Amino acid sequence: MNTLSGLIGPLAESASDRLGILMSALSGIAMALAVALAMTVYFRLGYRMSYSPWRDVVRHGLATLAAVALFAFAAYDVRHAALAYLGLNPSKPAVEFEIRMPRETLTAVSDTQIELHTDRNQTLALVDGVRDLADGRALLRGAVALNHRTADRVLVVNLPGKGTFEFRLRLPAKPHRSEQFGPWHLADRIASPVTGSIAPQDAYTIRYRVL
């Protein structure tokens, strides 16, 4: 019975999450269509009615501003639901990171596992993708939620057959959100299963920002 409950629980939560993001997306689309329809009717009626030029400018400006605000709200609502579905609570900070490493080291992105280790918990990070750089290295992007207030945070990158790479996040216990990425930092620790099979430590660097 416990095994059955353990299997049904995650499936039910996953279905609920999918339904939530679907409903948010549909509500955003419906709001956008309603705004577009209302603006179409408004401008058609406005052209048929006679007003003074300066009043037309004010009225049209206010109507356009209201439409833009509603579109922005719909986009924010969909983004909020998408982040929640991906496991990133928008009410809590998260770290977006970029890791540079030799291209030959990153053989299979699907097998790459990245975790945030703290003195309070361990959180699995989301791998966003990989981009090739002009210097022959690869840029691995991802994000991870900061669920606890602690300054002891280490991002652990596990590449099967290549080694484990640790990057200490130099952030306070309660970090502030930032628009720009910080400076690049070298890997703090590299553990390789085969001696001499990986590039020097300065070939692995990370930068990050708080969302």
Account of the 3D structure:
β4 (126-132) and β5 (137-145) form a beta hairpin. The two termini are 41 Å apart. This protein has 2 domains: 2-85; 94-210. Helix content is 38%, strand content 27%. By secondary structure, the chain is an alpha+beta fold. The chain is elongated and about 75 Å long. α1 packs antiparallel against α2 (53-85). It has a 5-stranded antiparallel sheet, with no helix packed on it. It has a 5-stranded antiparallel sheet with strand order 3-2-6-7-9, with no helix packed on it. The protein has helices spanning 2-48, 53-85, and strands at 94-102, 113-118, 122-124, 126-132, 137-145, 153-159, 163-168, 185-186, 189-191, 205-210.
Going by helix content, strand content and strand pairing, the class is alpha+beta
N to C succession of SSEs: HHEEEEEEEEEE
Roughly how much helix do the residues carry, as a percent range?
25-40%
Q: Low-confidence parts, pLDDT < 50 over ≥5 residues?
A: 1-17
In the sheet with the most strands, the strands line up as: 4-5-1-10-8
Rg (CA only):
24 Å
Instruction: Write down the overall mean pLDDT.
Output: 75
Q: What's the β-strand tally?
A: 10
Q: Termini distance?
A: 41 Å
Shape: elongated
| Number of structurally distinct domains | 2
* Biggest beta sheet attributes: 5 strands, antiparallel
Query: How much strand?
Result: 25-35%
The total count of helices amounts to 2
